[in-house]
Amino acid sequence: MKIIVFALCAIACAFAAVVPDPEANVVRSDYYHHPEGGYQYVYETENGISAQAEGQIRSLNKDEVAHQVHGSVSYIAPDGQRIETTYVADETGYHPQGAHLPTPPAPLPIPDYILRALEYIAAHPYKEETAKN
User: Are 28 and 44 in contact (CB under 8 A)?
Assistant: First the structure.
């Protein structure tokens, strides 16, 4: 349930950056509910907002199920650039992708003194001594 709430919050944040157009009409809106418990939806508006998603319930084991959703959201930013976010939301969390999203910096190299320490540890493994009575 937390995943669904998080995914909906993320989508709402994506739309919050869009300047609302009260005159924009919906040009396409389709929803299909699968008998097995899944669903699909798609919608588009005149002002370039569109979204689509497909969701399903997956069985993790005999006692647990997970809601899995994958989809995309796109809109035209105020500067005219098309912003598109694709995402997967499942039992591991919400995983968005998009060119506009920040990327983490490259990892720092491991310092030489740490590498030497790891080599020493590998060459001299710990040996537990048994007590003599």
Answer: yes
User: Does residue 41 contact residue 19 with C-beta atoms inside 8 Å?
Assistant: no
Pair of tokens at residue 40: 């699909």
> Which residues sit opposite 70 in a β-bridge?
54, 88
pLDDT at 126: 87
Full-model pTM: 0.60
Percentage, residues of the chain above pLDDT 70 = 83
Rounded to whole angstroms, the Cα distance separating 131 from 133 reads 6
Q: What is the pLDDT of residues 56-75, one digit of tens each?
A: 988 888 888 888 999 999 99
Q: Identify which of 3, 1, 9, 2 has the alpha carbon closest to the alpha carbon of residue 73.
A: 9
Report how far residue 42's alpha carbon sits from residue 28's, in angstroms, rounded to the nearest whole number. 7
The number of residues in the chain equals: 133
Strand extents, DSSP E, the chain: 26-33, 39-45, 50-59, 65-76, 82-90, 93-97
List, in sequence order, the alpha helices (H) in 17-133.
Answer: 112-123
Look up tokens 């080599």; give the residue: 119
Residue 18 CB coordination number (10 Å): 18
